[in-house]
Amino acid sequence: MSTEEEFEPAEPLDAPRGPRLVAIVIGALEALLLVAYAVSIAVFELVGTTSGIAGRTELAAPILIVLIAVFGVLIGIVTRAVWQRRSAARTPFLLTQAFGVVAAWTLTDGTDGWVRILGYAVLALAVVAFVCLIARSSELDR
Predict the structure, then answer these.
(1) How does 109-129 read in b/e, with b if 16+ C-beta sit within 10 Å?
(2) Domain ranges, residue 76
(3) How many Cα atoms within 13 Å fall on the side-chain side of residue 30?
(4) How far apart are CA 103 and CA 123, in angstroms?
(5) Is residue 7 classed as helix, strand or coil in its secondary structure?
(6) Based on the structure, what is the number of domains in the chain?
(7) What is the pTM of this model?
(8) At what angle do helices 90-107 and 61-83 cross, to 10 degrees?
(9) Assigned domain for 112 exists
(10) Rounded Cα distance, 84 and 27, in Å
(11) How far apart are CA 79 and CA 90, in angstroms?
(12) Rounded mean pLDDT of the chain?
């Protein structure tokens, strides 16, 4: 066996498709939107105006920025693990979607129409991602 054969790279995983791809896209979208929201809070804090939740809570803006950004990054890491078919990522991904359902449910009782629409959209995305990962959960074990 030559040295070239010993260090051959492993076969790349095939591209995700079907339900797993939908779950990955939703997870990536959630991660991206959370990080973008954290950045928007930081920008609004620097400009001196309020932005949504940051202006109405008693939490200091820096703490809120860090919490939301870290949560977004962690969702991104878990979504990447789902992309790589790591079965250990299934539980954190499903828990994230369950948390999304809880957060969305509170938004559906909002006083403004746009808050309710946002709540139903987040609720739908979380349920779809949950179902898609369950539907093809055995695909993560290959």
Answers:
(1) eeeeeeeeeebeebbebbeeb
(2) 19-135
(3) 32
(4) 8
(5) coil
(6) 1
(7) 0.74
(8) 130
(9) yes
(10) 13
(11) 9
(12) 81
Q: By the 8 A CB rule, do 61 and 46 touch?
A: no
Examine residue 41 and state whether it is found in any structural domain, yes or no.
yes
Task: Name the one residue in this structure whose structure tokens are 């629409």.
Answer: 117
User: What does the alpha-carbon distance between residue 13 and residue 44 come to, in Å, rounded to a whole number?
Assistant: 42
The residue assigned the tokens 């709540």 is: 119
Q: Say which residue the tokens 């779809």 belong to.
A: 128
Distance (Å, rounded) from C-alpha 82 to C-alpha 113?
Answer: 34
Task: Give the residue from 82, 78, 75, 79 showing the smallest Cα distance to 142.
Answer: 82
Instruction: Convert the pLDDT of each residue in 38-66 to its tens digit.
Output: 888 888 877 766 555 545 555 577 888 89
Residue 26 is predicted with a pLDDT of 93
In a domain? residue 23: yes
Q: Is residue 10 one of the residues assigned to a domain?
A: no
Q: How far apart are CA 102 and CA 53, in angstroms?
A: 17
Burial grade of 12 (CB within 10 A; 0-12, 13-18, 19 or more): exposed
Q: For residue 82, how many other CB atoms are within 10 A of its CB?
A: 23
